[in-house]
Structures
1.
Amino acid sequence: MHPYKPAWWLPNGHSQTLWAALLRKTPAIIIKEEQLELPDGDFVDLHWAGGTKGPIVVVLHGLEGSIHSRYTQGILHAITEMQWRGVLMHFRNCSTKPNRQARSYHGGDTGDLDYLIQCLQQREPDCALAAIGYSLGGNVLLKWLGSSGKQKTPTPLHAAAVVSVPFDFHNAIHTLEHGFSRIYHWHLLQKLRQSALRKFEQLPPPFPPTSIRSIRSIREFDDKVTAVLHGFENVDHYYSVVSSKQYLRDIQIPTLMIHSEDDPFMTPEAIPQPEDLSASITLDLLPAGGHVGFISGSWPCKSYVWSEKRIIEYFQMTGFE
């Protein structure tokens, strides 16, 4: 595969990030929906792409993402082009239906992913499995892989890949609160508040709904909502426990990490160093690409997402089939 060369007409991390999120055109894909019932009485919605046979790739979206996110549509199309099957797992409360319980999801919530992998393995014991995580979903995937490796628990995944992971939540949230990155902060905060308010229209809220409307930062949301709903002491405890950098040394399966030094969601200090990585990890650290961007090629009609091609190539190199 050709080395990554950023599109000349997207000269910095912000332009890469915004084009990929707002203007990139994605091919139409045929989706089959499934509601997976969870052991605690809640559910997650799955969106399947591809045929009825072939290897399965689990896709995890980022903060407040969904099947409507351009990056999820793009990678699912790339997966089906290989005659593989892709399944996007919506985190709780991120599909069209609010989940049933007061709890939702967070950046280190690996339980639902673990259950989905178990279900897939039970359904088709001989089927090859892989997983791809974007941003927050990539953090969840890395934490799950590292925790499994530390506990010496074999994972059924053949390989994994992540893109633009916020390896250090303290760093990421601080970065989003400053400079031009505040535009992403504002957008994500609005979505978080709307999602929480929608949920608690149907459930008894554990706190006054007015307190959600008054929240002015993601950090405050995570302190007053995320930490409270998921049993963390406070926001700092939450960020410290879930940040995936501390779990990387224990990952035991082939794992590709694609990251850009100009990612506007975090500073370069968040990027893992060689001593943080296990021997199973390949880190593609690129000077440009933004957050879940990595657009290459000439003016839009001939552009493409390099990270998607790189992930497919990596999976092939590991023998995934």
2.
Amino acid sequence: MNKLSQEFQFFRSHPLGMRTLLLTNLIYALVMPIVELFVGAYIMRNSEDISLVVIFQLAVYTGIPLTFLINGYLLNHFPIARLYSLGMLLSGVSMFAMMSLDNLDTMGVFIAGLIMGLSYGFFWANRDFLALNTTKDDNRNYYYGIETFFYTITGIVVPLAAGAFIAATDKNGWFGGNVNVAYHGLTIGVFALSVLASILVHRGKFQNPKRAPFLFLKFDRLWNKMLGLASLKGVAQGYIVTAPTMLILSLVGKEGSLGLITSIGAALSAVLLYVLGRITGPQHRLLIYGIGCGLFVLGALFNAGLYSAEGVILFMLCLLFARPLLDIAYFPIQLKVIDVVAEKEGRNEFAYIFNHELGLYLGRLLGCGLFIVLARYVSEYVALRYALLVIASVQFLGYFAMKGIVRDLGKRSSPETS
């Protein structure tokens, strides 16, 4: 208890804006697993068309950069907290739109996905800027360690509870045996939590970015390297956002298994991430990123070699550790690069946040496009077994790109140390 008290006091020693942002993200973290995991499962249950899941994700990815662009202009007229809360509320609206469809067709799924993309766009555009402006380089490992700890813990509880609720509805004949009613109940829960997070974020007294142009074509060479790394990250995101769900539903079981497997190993991962965020510094980020890349490749090897329920479980366990490790290293380095190049070029920081999203979008399109082509015109077997290993290998190339960025950062002085 004494140790917990010390950790709480350490948390309270940080600025109010940073603490408010973390608590807001904690509440919204309860929403994200439902959106990410069970929307795809809902589409599969009601259509049995794997391509519709990918079409939904393509619509999401299309809506995100579009919203980043719109958000850049709206920041000149509306408080950033209001736009941030709008993004959280739209996630519930998207799920309502999806589940109001009598028949899931391409256009209906695409529109629901586009609304979800608007939600993510408002959320991530403003979250990234607020994270940049409420933290400094020396406390960003802690910030992202805490944030990833929140997301990992909710990744244990929420999928397990939601998956068990859906599976029990199916098994016990609750709501007249209509499993879709269970999905509707989850959607109401998503909307309620989004409202609560939206109320909390307005307590942070956050400042909008300065009024300045944010659309540019030419950037510093260091930022161009960061943009290339973002594209590599996007390729992996675009491919694996649906692949894990498809693997579990195909080789392991239904939604109950989906929630259970996502929870396995996450508790240990959460503790590890908190410790890493607490004790590591900027000098450890490259090592953490390399370990994350290696775990991703290892998981893909398990899946390709076994291609069975056991292989999927091992892949998911590796992914549960790899993704947060990659994030806890990637995001602080991204913000550090923005600090450096924004100071050098004298530009609005939001210009780099928007441009970074375009790099992610390009990679996501390539990843999703590859999945669609393989699943529709080759086979789902190839898409889920062998191509996943290729994607993991591409992601591993990001380690060498990250190494070059860290080396260049070491040669330059940040605004905080100059």
